[in-house]
Write a structure and sequence with these properties.
By secondary structure, the chain is mostly helical. The chain has two helices and no strands.
């Protein structure tokens, strides 16, 4: 016995619904996996950034006292040498001014480097790529 057009449409509709449900399920799975991968990447990148920054800070903490003591002796020696021509007050003022200028330039460069460093750049790039890919229109007829 041959099925009527209404029965055929009902069967096709069920297949379409099952196919659509399968596609939605796969899409949900894919999105879940994508979000999980982004979170894993972000966690790994944060840990790596923290490790690098921690190691650099530890090195700085170890060597700063030596730098400060040596720097103090160099400044005192320079002031004593300049005192012959400028007097002690003039020599100390000149050495102090040079320190202020050098320190200001150093701080400005350090701040510029901090501003230029992008934390979690890889994660941001991957997330941007994913959002772009997900927001593109799917061509009809597929």
């Amino acid at each position: 016995m041959r099925a009527t057009t209404g029965e055929q449409m009902g069967a096709g509709s069920e297949q379409t619904d099952r196919g659509l449900a399968t596609l939605v399920g796969r899409l949900t799975e894919g999105l879940t996996r994508l979000v999980t991968q982004h979170l894993t990447l972000a966690r790994a990148e944060i840990m790596e950034d923290a490790r690098v920054v921690g190691a650099d800070l530890a090195l700085i903490a170890v060597f700063v006292p030596f730098v400060l003591v040596g720097y103090g002796f160099v400044c005192a020696g320079l002031a004593v040498a300049l005192a012959r021509w400028l007097g002690l007050a003039g020599a100390l003022a000149l050495v102090g001014a040079l320190n202020l200028v050098g320190g200001a330039v150093g701080v400005q460069r350090a701040v510029a480097r901090l501003k230029a460093h992008q934390v979690m750049a890889d994660t941001t790039n991957e997330l941007t790529r994913s959002v772009t890919a997900l927001s593109q229109e799917v061509p009809r007829g597929r």
